[in-house]
Every structure is written in structure tokens, then in C-alpha cells.
Write a structure and sequence with these properties.
three-stranded antiparallel sheet; mainly alpha
């Protein structure tokens, strides 16, 4: 795993690491550490839906795959604090179509991530949007755009989006404007099958 991409994500290429992360509690732990910084198992437990001892077990499992690590001790040095090793993570299905283990693991993790984020827009619309100031309410929402592109062109689109996002993702907190706030940008790239392209159905 390497975090050399422009967004500072950790690259997950090991199928076993993908399967390890494809668990709702572990995904919740990693997301909480990435968003709010270092925490103990006890602090994480209420947010991830597990007891402190179970949360601690999941943290050690994630650490075994290099996704979390020990953080600097807090005020209570008796409690172990954990941190994410990177701001985010990314993974892809293998380039080798015969790599059944890699394809299966990436599919399992993708499915778990889709399930985890699938209700986010609905929760935002019902719980967050009504409480936003007008300037933020106007900027939020959904764009649903269909394009007809080649695989290379889709890769170029993704790369261009990352180039735009990178300065905002990687800048230090001290460089953020005073009125800055967190914004979740959900990007789904959902290629159609060949028969959808021609209007045929199986």
C-alpha cells in the first residue's frame, strides 16, 4: 500500500486488506478517525456501534493492514490512541481479469461502501439541509449527469476532478478560510453495460 497519489489517500491493493475493511464497524472506525482525528477505542465505540473491547479488536485488525496506527498519547497516557494513516483510501479492481481473488475482494468492499453511503443523500435532505443557511443550501444538492465516453476518457475525467479537489483536500487547517466547513462530495461513476448502450435488455 502506498499513499503517493495527489489526494494523499492510501492505496489498498491487497485483497485481504480489502476484505478486512469491508466491515461496517471497521469502515465506521476509519471514517471517524479520518474526519475527527485521533481517538481511543472508548471514544470511538459510541460512534461505530460497538463496545470498547470490540472496537479495540477491530482497530488492531486495521492496524495489521497498515490502515491505522498509534497516535501521540493524550492527557491520559494509560489509554491507547489511534489515528488513520492517511486522509482517505482508495482501491481498484485488478487489471488482470483472471485475478479472481482481487476482483472478488474489490467487489465485496465496493458493495459495503455503497451500502454505507447509500442513505447519505436522504439523511442530508431530511436532517441537514433544513438547518443550513441559504448560501449553503443553494450550493448543496445532487447532480445526475450521463456522459458517453470511452474507458480512457472516464479515467481522464476522474483525474481532472482530483486535480481540482487536491488543493482543498491537502491544505493545512491553518490555510482554510474562517467560514470554511466540511462538505461531503459523493462521486459515483456507474458505467452502463453494452446492451444498455444500445437499448437492448437481456
Amino acid at each position: 500500500m502506498d499513499s503517493g497519489n495527489r489526494l494523499g489517500d492510501i492505496e489498498i491493493t491487497d485483497p485481504q486488506a480489502m476484505r478486512a475493511l469491508a466491515h461496517p464497524v471497521r469502515l465506521a472506525i476509519l471514517e471517524r478517525l479520518q474526519r475527527q482525528g485521533p481517538a481511543t477505542a472508548t471514544q470511538l465505540a459510541p460512534d461505530v456501534g460497538a463496545t470498547p473491547s470490540v472496537t479495540s479488536w477491530h482497530l488492531r485488525h486495521l492496524a495489521g493492514f497498515g490502515l491505522v496506527r498509534d497516535a501521540e498519547p493524550g492527557p491520559d497516557r494509560r489509554q491507547r490512541r489511534w489515528e488513520a494513516v492517511a486522509r482517505g483510501f482508495r482501491f481498484q479492481a485488478p487489471k488482470d481479469p483472471d485475478d479472481e481473488e482481487g476482483w472478488s475482494a474489490s467487489r465485496v468492499l465496493s458493495r459495503e461502501m455503497f451500502l454505507r453511503s447509500g442513505d447519505l443523500p436522504n439523511r442530508w435532505a431530511t436532517e441537514v439541509e433544513p438547518r443550513l443557511e441559504p448560501v449553503w443550501r443553494r450550493l448543496g444538492g445532487l447532480a445526475n449527469t450521463r456522459v458517453v465516453v470511452s474507458a480512457d476518457e472516464l479515467a481522464a475525467i476522474e483525474d481532472a476532478i482530483e486535480r481540482v479537489l487536491a488543493p482543498y483536500v491537502t491544505r493545512e487547517e491553518t490555510a482554510q478560510p474562517d467560514d470554511a466547513r466540511g462538505v461531503r462530495l459523493l462521486r459515483y461513476a456507474l458505467p452502463e453495460t453494452a446492451d444498455e448502450q444500445t437499448g437492448e435488455t437481456s
